[in-house]
Amino acid sequence: MINATARASDRLEALGLELPALGFGASPYFVNHRAVDSAIHISGQLPYRDGELMGQGIVGRDVDVPTARELARQTALNALAIAADAVGDLDRVRIVQMLVFVASTPDLGEQSRVADAASELLVEVLGENGRHARTAIGVAGLPRNSPVEIQMICTAVQHEETP
């Protein structure tokens, strides 16, 4: 159950998680995020943990759905770290849209279940600010043979002043 009054950073800690350090997936060709007006577009992220890709392969052939769900959670956590950096504070992050790519066999049909794990994490950490529009797509392959890639659009919310 989500404590609606808890700070996002406290919820994250209660889940036994911490935002990963930035720097993973650095490229000379693109940036991790780009702000356009109030929207922050986060580049596609892969399931890295401590600089290592957590899994490779095709879901439904090399990777089972429960494993793919864990990879999706880590990928969402990585995107959340970038979002927090972009807006300056995890408590100011509001997810607008998430696009989840799942490298999967043509007959899998469970891309939404994989994406649900990422959506659940965002709501667990951000509460209502984690609810978002979402698309889950099955694809033939992803960079570095990753089973999952997530792209997000977020915005910053203003802190309410407390008397």
TrEMBL record:
<protein>
    <submittedName>
        <fullName>RidA family protein</fullName>
    </submittedName>
</protein>
<feature type="domain" description="Endoribonuclease L-PSP/chorismate mutase-like">
    <location>
        <begin position="11"/>
        <end position="147"/>
    </location>
</feature>
<dbReference type="InterPro" id="IPR035959">
    <property type="entry name" value="RutC-like_sf"/>
</dbReference>
<dbReference type="Pfam" id="PF14588">
    <property type="entry name" value="YjgF_endoribonc"/>
</dbReference>
<dbReference type="InterPro" id="IPR013813">
    <property type="entry name" value="Endoribo_LPSP/chorism_mut-like"/>
</dbReference>
